[in-house]
Amino acid sequence: MPKRKNTFSSWRRRLAQRAVHAGWAWVQRTGSVTAAHPGRFRFGALGHGTRLAFPLGTVFGEPWIHLGAHCIVGEQVTLTAGLMPGLELGPDPILCIGDGVVLGRGSHVIADTTVTIGSDCYFGPYVYVTSTNHSYDDPHEPIGKQWPRMEPVRIGPGCWIGTGAVILPGARIGRNVVVAAGAVVRGTVPDHAVVAGAPARVVRRWTPADGWQPPLRTPAPVPIPDGVTTEQLMALADLDEEAAERLARLELDAEP
């Protein structure tokens, strides 16, 4: 026989669920790090409007970490300067992140020597950027015990770094570069290029003389017309939702 539904238990469960979700939302808001509420962190610079989402990943060496304005750092993002906490790294910043940068959830930026990320770069989730690589010169010594090699990393402004990409020591990525998901980047990447693969190679590039080569297969998105306000865009979104609801009701009415 089917079990009788326990209405009281179901009601209590819904109430507890709402309380848990509300409590976790409060924890996320309260635990996030901003310039106005830095908590225990003392970054070298933390720009206006920048927020590090809670829960944070590993963060140390923050006096040598400079973050620009209006950055979004997702949950569980690791930001480190230096090989380990507690080191004195000198007067200059080690990790510099420009204005308007977005670092996706679970990404790592490991700056044992200088790492620079230009303004308006967008990282997908789980991107890994490091200025340090293990060395294996001595065949008789465990690799983890050999002194690592360090080379500065520079990512130019306006780049898009896809999910799971790896940026290796010594990488020099130009302006407005697309790094495909899962790509492993080393060496120099020119401006206005698309790179993919492991190791990454240029698969498409734009130049003033030739445009995009190979040519783009899809038309460019139609830009928002000048003069359109935020309020108008939000009103259009509301209209889309209403139209979707009306269509769903019509489909239900049409069912036999």
Automatic annotation (TrEMBL):
Its EC number is 2.3.1.-. Keywords: Acyltransferase, Repeat, Sugar transport, Transferase, Transport. The keyword Acyltransferase applies. It is an enzyme of class 2 (transferase). Transmembrane segments: none annotated. One of its GO terms (molecular function) is acyltransferase activity. It comes from the Bacteria. Belongs to the transferase hexapeptide repeat family. This is Acyltransferase.
